[in-house]
Amino acid sequence: MPVRPADQVVTEASLALLTVPALAKLPPPSEDSKAKAAEAAAKSAWSDKVAAFKLCQAMDRVAQDYRQKATAAGKEASAPAATGDCVDPGPYAATPVAEKPLEASGAHSPPGNATTPPSTKATDAELKGGPKQ
User: Fold this and answer.
1) Residue 64 is assigned to a structural domain of this protein
2) In 23, 36, 114, 121, which residue has its Cα 20 to 30 A from 5's Cα atom?
């Protein structure tokens, strides 16, 4: 069995140590980040549709220009091929992220009626009626 050089062993060991942190698991994404990712994906899909629509229009213009120039020059231009119509995707319509109701967000009041005002200048001893311990 051949002996490996020390440099190769050190390099392999350092690479092994560097790959260990890469195996750490990330925490799951929050609902807010999931919503933002879905919105970004929707906008990207709409942008792709707009780009395809503009490309379709450009190809139709080039083909029409070619046919006009060919017939003007006295050449026989081929009939246009049957392709699908260019479909305009329309304006981007952002769907707002559904807001949680106040009760579901955990921002509700504690149960029971308030027995004291929310803020007072009285000390704890004055409120409890005894000396401070």
Assistant:
1) yes
2) 23
